[in-house]
Amino acid sequence: MDNKKADLKQLLRERSVRIGNFVLSSGKPSTFYVDARLTTMSPEGMILIGQLGLNTIRERGWDPDSVGGLTLGADPVSFAISYTSGSAGGSLRAFTVRKEPKEHGAGRLIEGPFQSGDRVVVIEDVITTGKSALQAIDSIVSLNGNVVGVFSIVDRDDGGREAIESRGYQVSSLFNIGELLS
């Protein structure tokens, strides 16, 4: 797995990390930006993320039924992990959490094969303030899901991990921002 992690780190550095002046969704200024989707939505990225994500979840002993998080950043990560689990003989289902319930049809807040009572790992591409993960957690818990952990590709070391952990949830990230900027 070390070689796979090194390969993913290189992809993130080449495709997703940008240096400059940016305003984050939180409104805070930043001298760097991580657009993880440029990696997570690529075939090479999905293969590596599926393997590394599933391995991390297993190493943590979380034993979930499903994985998912707030659309759009979590979606390719969740799908890659789910696909990899199926290829490895497992059946880890993926779902997506809407920012607001759908206004037509069934009016769902969570799309996909999530089931009430599921043990869930919440997925994030990049943790900054933790707001997206916490919104997903609240949605999942409101529908009787049992969140067993939070997995992300990158932790920006901007207080998000602490915000999530202060609510009692374990967080595991493949990289912190220092690893990608060094």
Keywords:
182 residues; alpha/beta; Rossmann fold; six-stranded mixed β-sheet; two-stranded antiparallel sheet; 41% helix; globular
Give the SSE map.
Layout (H helix, E strand, L loop, with lengths): L1 H15 E7 L5 E6 L2 H4 L2 H18 L5 E5 L3 H14 L5 E5 L12 E2 L7 E9 L3 H12 L3 E10 L4 H6 L5 E6 H5 L1
Parallel strand pairs: 3-4, 3-6, 6-7, 7-8
Antiparallel strand pairs: 1-2, 4-5
3D architecture notes:
There is one protein chain. The chain has a single domain (about 50-175), classed as Rossmann fold. The protein is built from 7 helices and 8 strands, in the order αββααβαβββαβαβα. The protein has helices at about 1-15, 35-40, 45-60, 75-85, 130-140, 160-165, 175-180, and strands spanning about 15-25, 30-35, 65-70, 95, 110, 120-125, 145-155, 170-175. It has a 6-stranded mixed sheet with strand order 5-4-3-6-7-8, with helices on both faces. A two-stranded antiparallel sheet has the order 1-2. Helix 1 (about 1-15) crosses helix 3 (about 45-60). The radius of gyration is 16 Å and the shape is globular.
